[in-house]
Amino acid sequence: MKANDPVYIAGHRGMVGGAIKRKLETLGYHNIITRSSGSLDLRKQEEVDSFFAAEKPAYVFLAAAKVGGILANNTYRAEFLYDNLMIAANVIHAAWKHGVTKLLFLGSSCIYPRMAPQPIKESFLLTGLLEPTNEPYAIAKIAGIKLCEAYRDQYGCNFISVMPTNLFGIGDNYHPQNAHVLPALIRRFHEAKMNNKPSVTVWGTGTPRREFLFADDLADACVYLMQHYNEREPVNIGKGEDLTIKQLAEHIREVVCYKGEIIFDAGKPDGTPRKLMDVSALRRLGWKHSTSLKEGLVIAYRDFLQQDQLKLHA
Ligand code: GDP
């Protein structure tokens, strides 16, 4: 991938696509192609086909997806399945048809079986039942991985897949109900602090364990793999370290400087008990994260405050 190659980032307005764009710009890539979802609907095959025919990207980062937290995944099950299937199928097919040199597809750690042994190796894909709350999203992402493999097998396309762990960072969604746990808790702790509430409620039992990677680190890994990895097997992207939701809540309480109590609502779903990535393949390929959870949380809280200010003045 050279600095003047046309590189298309699908989903550049999302947290991941935005981080990939920043990374590429920092590295001097100056032929980056983007489209908002308003001007190109990736769920529409003809629109995607015309776009690829006109723009002829050489490299594609497929970071566009309908995403959300446990509640959103479980509520909008049809949309999570349909939208993500269509995006993956249309973009991957068009990339083959229009001769894209290389494509990187972003999967997710939730594609692995609910009760997968820990840490989760790439080879555990399709060895057991999925977590029911995010099964539609996972099925769509698994289809994306299989599309990359099948287009490689049949047509020789250099399409690779990566499986990021739970992500957070600049441009995250801080919706109180539909967001992922980390940004949702940043909002909840901040609002409790501003309103002098005595306690904050965290969903579930607090015992599930999760791993959290800063989105700019993920972007760095994606660009690294685009430059150095050309194999069929998906690659996990994570830190190889996890913590409980209770510990996460305590870190966020500290970063937000909230002094009240934390209460757990066991009536809300816990989801998968543990989701820790085996990152030995990534380490062998020569990549490691650089942002600690604490550093990332400080940046994310600042990002939340900025988004909040922008909304107030909108
Ligand atoms: P996600 O973060 O919602 O995408 O989903 P996960 O399957 O990784 O689960 C998040 C974990 O955090 C679950 O155990 C939830 O019960 C717990 N959790 C605690 N509070 C919240 C919250 O406010 N929002 C979300 N999404 N999860 C929460």
Automatic annotation (TrEMBL):
GO molecular function: GDP-L-fucose synthase activity; isomerase activity; NADP+ binding
PANTHER family linked: GDP-L-FUCOSE SYNTHASE (PTHR43238:SF1)
EC number in record: 1.1.1.271
Chain sites annotated for binding substrate: 188, 203, 210, 270
Gene Ontology BP terms: 'de novo' GDP-L-fucose biosynthetic process
UniProt domain NAD-dependent epimerase/dehydratase: residue ranges: 7-238
Keywords for the protein's UniProt record, in alphabetical order: Isomerase, Multifunctional enzyme, NADP, Oxidoreductase
Gene3D superfamilies linked to this entry: NAD(P)-binding Rossmann-like Domain, UDP-galactose 4-epimerase, domain 1
Protein role: Catalyzes the two-step NADP-dependent conversion of GDP-4-dehydro-6-deoxy-D-mannose to GDP-fucose, involving an epimerase and a reductase reaction.
Pfam families in UniProt: Epimerase
Record's catalysed reaction(s): GDP-beta-L-fucose + NADP(+) = GDP-4-dehydro-alpha-D-rhamnose + NADPH + H(+)
Name of this chain's protein: GDP-L-fucose synthase
Residues engaged in binding NADP(+): 11-17, 106-109, 141, 164-167, 180
Family per record: Belongs to the NAD(P)-dependent epimerase/dehydratase family. Fucose synthase subfamily.
Enzyme class, broadest EC rank: oxidoreductase
Active-site residues, record numbering mapped to chain: 137
Residues under site feature: Important for catalytic activity: 108, 110
Organism whose genome encodes this protein: Chitinophaga eiseniae
Pathway(s) this gene product operates in, as recorded in its UniProt entry: Nucleotide-sugar biosynthesis; GDP-L-fucose biosynthesis via de novo pathway; GDP-L-fucose from GDP-alpha-D-mannose: step 2/2
Highest rank taxon of the organism: Bacteria
